[in-house]
Known about the structure:
- The complex is a heterodimer of chains A (173) and B (176).
- Chain A is mostly helical and 173 residues long.
- Among the domains of chain B are: 46 residues, no CATH class; 36 residues.
- Chain B contains 8 helices and no strands.
- Chains A and B meet through α1, α2, α3, α4 and α5 of A and α4, α5, α6 and α7 of B.
Amino acid sequence: MKRTRRAALALVLLPxxxxxxxxxxxxxxxxxxxxxxxxxxxxxxxxxRQVLELSDALELDNAQAxxxxxxxxxxxxxxxxxxxxxxxxxxTLHQAARGDAAAQPQVDAAAxxxxxARERIAALDKEMYLALAKELPPAKxxxxxxxxxxxxxxLKLGKWKRNGVVPELPPID
Amino acid sequence: xxxxxxYEVLLDVHATGGLETDExxxxxxxxKTCDGCREALASTVGVLMLADMPPLSAEEKxxxxxxxxxxxxxxxxxxxxxxxxxxxxxxxxxxxAVVALMLLVPxxxxxxxSGTDTxxxxxxxxxxxxxxxxxxxTMAAIEAWAGLEPLDEDxxxxxxxxxxxxxxxxxxxxxx
Lengths: 173, 176
């Protein structure tokens, strides 16, 4: 039964994979629109991965998984302007660091915006956890917290490892 | 002495109590006057009495009384299983139909989405001065610092399908 449920869940969620495929005909689009589409596409892919991980960990059925996807999507939408705020601040700081005169006066404001966005993202993460944990029993809440942390940690760790920043560590007992 | 041939069958049926009242009265009247038939009837009744079942024990009575309820429960269970199977098959078929639609007309869907999507990414004028962009790795590091999952799609990263498989604890291929 569990196998059937997983198969059905994967089938239900496959459209997100289909829609998350990169566009092949976007040569004519301007950079801003292309960037927005790329962000949306990657967000969808990350969200799909998160839904599958959480559904598996929390043993959700299809309806619950779709509800979870909807909740994650709402939080992604709220996180998107904060991501843009971080990226915008990073661009300004990058320009200032390269000596661009127009960007120099904006350094403090840009750094402030980056820190502020970081705090709001952390608050949003906590709010998302509470929203997802709302109807779960304690054991499932614990699994949720661990899965969310592990998912994010694994992603960052994986990237750092690919870049050779962190050496391979032996597994913890 | 043998029974009258025309009464042989009637006598057997009469012995089991299966005759209608008129016919039973007729056979009864005949038996009174015919020794052969009387003997045949007595013999049949004797045989039938040998095959008579003993009375039901308390356990057997309880079993018999339970029978309708157990039959109903079994029927309900069976109906539930059949319903569940039908619903599961229906869900899988519906999901497969949706997937087929999504995969068969991806271009149209993508076109519709990009046509109606009005989300644009604002960027500050300072950010694009001289066309100098933050490199993907730095941007990803800053996003990770802020608590976001990096958006960069570096060439070393696995393909879409691999990304899905990479971090999952179960194998999609196995289930599909």
